[in-house]
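Before a colleague's protein record goes any further, I have to sign it off. What it holds is a sequence and that sequence's fold in token form. My question to you is simply how this chain folds and whether the tokens agree. Thanks in advance; the entry in question is below:
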Amino acid sequence: MQLLYLPILILAAIIFAGVSLFFASRPLRGAVLVLAAYLYEILIVTVPPIPIGVLIYPADIVAVLLFVAAILRYAVGKTKPKGMQLIPIALFVLFSICMVRGLGVYGLKDAGNAGREFFYFLSGVFYFSTFNLSSRLLKRLVTLWMATSMVMVGIAVFRWLATVAGLGIVAQWNNVGDTSIRVLAAEKALFLAMAFFASLFMNVSKTGPQWQRKAFYLLGPVILLLQHRTVWVVMIIGVLWLGLQDVRFRKKAIGAIAVMAIIGIVLTAFLFGHQTEIATASLQNSATNDDTFLWRVAGWYQLLFNNPNLNMLNGTIGQPFGAGFDRVIAGAVIDVAPHNWYVQTFLQLGIVGLFLEMRMYMLGIRRINRMPVQWQKCMYPDARFWSLMLLLQLVFFFSYSASFVQSILTGLAIAGLRLKPRRSASKHLTVPEPPGELA
């Protein structure tokens, strides 16, 4: 009877490979796929799985498609693994070892659930890092990111209005935060923060469409109202980093903050009307309440120093997926992820995996900053934007996990180190290859 399913499985595999090949040729297609799945997740909130013996989520299918597409790119000679591309490959090898160990001990369900976040993020970085990029392509990808951020702002505004109106639909997204005004999760607010800085770069350098240049005036107040302190810290560090490097940002800072403050007041008045005390009280609580942070720190301590799963092998290459994150905080057993990507990476991929991931980020920041000027100009909207995105992700990882959608920027930042030479429209000249490790 099982043999009857063999032709169906073979046909499904052929179709799946063909679809993957479609995404293997253009990174823009992969970005559209990831962002479409991302918006679907935001709109649905609780995404229903597809039961086919095991529970399959839309993000699982997207991640596998990108992973296979990256493999196909190597297989057909579209790209060759070298330099920083070797780091995502090494992380995938380490991930596979821990997954195989987990499957043998804990089974497919537990190991698969524990490995999802890592597989999503690594598959995205793996895929996007395989492409040779051009300024034109980066412009399209950034525009796609900006357009998605505007859709997310619309979703947030609708949810705020629904909250004030007391609509029953509010219960659908109450699980994304601990306050009624926190209608998008922290990782979604980080997405908007990335769009904020892209807009800020475009405004200062006077590049890109007008709506993208001025988008940060709206994105700033929305991020503030979403009330995620980690994202606030990310924003502050980003602004300080830019101000220290470029006098143009310092000159525009005061005026931009004033305009954003006015827009924020108007937006709050429009959304909450006579119930502005909801936003005020919630903002005060978000700014002063440190209980959540202390709870997380206590959990990190337990996982690092009172963890029975930690031994020489697991500390080096990671514990088997499915081992979990059980710890005791205030007399209660907690088993959720540790809300710290560094702790989570150390536990799941060991000190080797943590070192590789940190090296990927730090090396990426250093190499982008050391690029020749003519190559930095290819990295739309600015080379510093891409190094800043890597830096801000590192800050965000202190309180949250890496997300699938952020792998787009991480992978593109790594791919940017292998920029395709630009051609002059008139003489068809190419920019010389960058020296040494920047190639």
In short: The chain is about 70% helix and 0% strand. The first strand starts at residue 50 and ends at 51. Strands lie at 50-51, 55-56, 327-329, 332-334.
